[in-house]
Amino acid sequence: xxxxxESGGGLVKPGGxxxxxxxxxxxxxxxxxxxxxxxxxxxxxxxxxxxxxxSSETFYADSVKGRFTISRDNxxxxxxxxxxxxxxxxxxxxxxxxxYMTSLTYNLFHPxxxxxxxTVSS
Amino acid sequence: DIVMTQSPATLSVxxxxxxxxxCRASQSVSSNLAWYQQKPGQAPRLLIYGxxxxxxxxxxxxxxxxxxTEFTLTISSLQSEDFAVYYCQQYNNWPPWTFGQGTKVxxx
Lengths: 122, 108
Fold this sequence. Notes:
The complex is a heterodimer of chains A (122) and B (108). Chain A is 0% helix and 50% strand. Chain A contains no helices and eleven strands. Chain A has strands at 3-7, 10-12, 18-25, 34-39, 45-51, 58-60, 68-73, 78-83, 92-99, 109-112, 116-120. In chain A, strands 2, 4, 5, 6, 9, 10 and 11 form a seven-stranded mixed beta sheet that branches. Chain A has a four-stranded antiparallel beta sheet with strand order 1-3-8-7, with no helix packed on it. In chain B, the strands form two sheets. In chain B, strands 2, 4, 5, 6, 9, 10 and 11 form a seven-stranded mixed beta sheet that branches. In chain B, strands 1-3-8-7 form a four-stranded antiparallel beta sheet, with no helix packed on it. In chain B, β9 and β10 (98-99) form a beta hairpin. The relative contact order of chain B is 0.34. Chains A and B meet through β5 and β10 of A and β4, β5 and β10 of B.
């Protein structure tokens, strides 16, 4: 069974940093691009960042560019999101999502993890 | 960036009735359009991709149509488990990959 399990969320002060993780199982992690999508409380879905299989291509939403860094460890079957200079508007559930196909060319999100809540507040 | 606009924001439907959700793109996305379902407290689930292809395990009562800038998601006969929020997402012009704002399908 394909499974994605996020961890590392929590409460952080504005300006602080946090790294969230996503552990993958049930599929060959190394051949799929991966993504982070977030959802602020009561709001819709917002794509945050994507990374290709070899980590040679990374993409970021303008809202997080320069503050967030996506990375992966294929040997550990893990995806990460390092979040720096956090703002209150970054408060959201952060979902890890596999790309449905192996490349980013046709990047739709399936499956999704259960999400991890990041709260930025003083 | 391509802006995805869904309508209506909320759709009130009786069980067994048909529901149609619309999604409009600010410029053509060809058929590179996906639909997701999200129930309260759960992660989104892929329903449709390529505008009209059902993902694995999705019941036939869900269908998608359209191309270019206008798309629809139709649920032919609503079941109790279908009351949820539905999102469209384009994957034609990227980055960014963009979602519609969501349509809540509620019980009438």
